[in-house]
Amino acid sequence: MNICSLPPEILQQIFALSCADDRDASGAPVPLTRRLACFKKNILPVCRRFHELGLHALYSHVHIGHPRAFDVFRYELNKNPDLGSFVKCLDFSDFTSIGLGRTRQMNREIQMVTAETITDALLKLPNLKEFLVSEALEDDLGPQVLATLFNKLPFLEAADFCGASSDSFLAAMSKLQYTDSTCQISRLSFHQCVSLPASVFENLLPRLGELTRLDLTHTHVSARALMSIPATARITHLSLSKCRSIGVKSMISFLTTHPAVASGSLQWLSLQWADLSPDDLSTLLKSLQSSSPHLFNLNLYGLPVEKYHLDFIPHTVEELSLGFASLSVDDLIAAFSSRTNLRYLDLTGNPYITCWTIGEMRLLKGIPSVQTWEFDLTKILLKMTHVRLPNYTIVIGQGRRGWIFCGEKNKDALHVAHCASRAVARCQYVLGMDIGSTPAWDGASRKIDCSAADFGAGLERGIYLYYAYRIC
Questions:
Q1: In 3D, which of 188, 100, 94, 175 has the Cα closest to residue 137?
Q2: Domain range for residue 12?
């Protein structure tokens, strides 16, 4: 059968799978930008039918890495307005001045991407489901942009404003008027939006009855805002890291009683540097054992975790962060040696762990299920760059973090894999080659991914890589 004779729905599905395939013939990771460029170059010119149907796959995820790309995208929209209906994700995650030789002032002076041009584009994307933007465009997220996102896009499911904290963004969010009492957005991130006042969340969160993923890391969200989340929401991924404005009792009450998180839906929870006491932590962990049967990621970094708390950690947890917990090697082995599903363990800042502790291998071998370990970068891993650990590879990240991964690519491979300061898109590619493919690596992420799998999910690009894998 000629492939061109297949029904259009099947061909579109084939093209979508082709765009989503992030591995080449040799198994090496292929960055998103390169995948889209290859698809445009190799698939669209084959024939008219491939071109017509391939546009659906090519334009479903519009990736904007620089101002010229956005200008070209708008030009194509104006020339062929039908393309706007194909777009499901508008992705600015790579649009950043970091590593690109541009300053914030230069970004502001580039008139190809402004509040007016972004609004103009959004109004031509009636089926948009995801809008991903970062701090590089925080000054261009004006009232028109936000009003369009929250009031004029009926199918929008995800919005990510990672790191946006400028005065203009604060003013626009504070003055935003909602035309409806409900909002269909289910995945929302204000990760590191440190300037937003509590009133912004108190106005927005009560409208999110379909909420599933919520990243409020380092924000001024209040207890009132959290408790106002509709009971119909079923949150699977939640980050309340560094949220000091909530209050301990209110945080415990929300996590243990609110239907949105205490009805069995919670899978990913980050409470990094939350102001919990040992007793508060005991109460919370005991509640999670019964209320969250599907919890697989738990971040207790910077919390006062004691030896007795380890027995309360749900056995469903696969990715666990115990940063700065004073737990001895014997305590850790006794608590986790029999667990078979623990794949990732973060022990950064543990006073009992040194280069010698790791070098003797008792800890690494004492918890055999763990495939990826995270330790202090400057005090431990950088001092072990010439140490051989049989069947383990040390990975030095670009930022402040480092890991030890169980496994070696081959016997002659370097046992320390440095992520050189290269283009942002290259870093995750290098990491992927160094550690191989393992679900445990996902546990290193400090940020909730708001992108759906259909539109290039994964924090491997731009500013999201920085917040997910480079800072603590």
A1: 94
A2: 1-63
